[in-house]
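May I ask for a single protein's sequence together with how it folds?
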Amino acid sequence: MRCDEFLAEVRDVGEYEDQREAEQVTRAVFSVLAERLPGSTLDHLAAQIPEPLDEALDPGDRLEAEPFGVEEFYVRVAEETGALPLTARQDSGAVLSTVAKAVSGGELNQVLSHLPSGYAVMFGKPDLA
């Protein structure tokens, strides 16, 4: 999936005004996801995300993933975007359900294997808990 296609999907699902807003939300969600996943998983995921959006999945100097739950994920996305946690929930779903469409099934399973089951709903998958 090309970058413009990815952002168009996020824009449609999230009902954003324009592609710029969809990109800002995507980068915020990816930034928080980069805090939650181990580096090797991020590398594999980033390889399937269109450039330049993949840059937001860079873990930086962090050596280990932070073990936080779904509600903390929403709080962190809200802090990144300046939105309320309820809006961050919708933003996360718009971006991560698009990720689920853009990456291979094997990659999606790898990502989900590093997250508690409550995260699955953000990717448009049933919660297995």
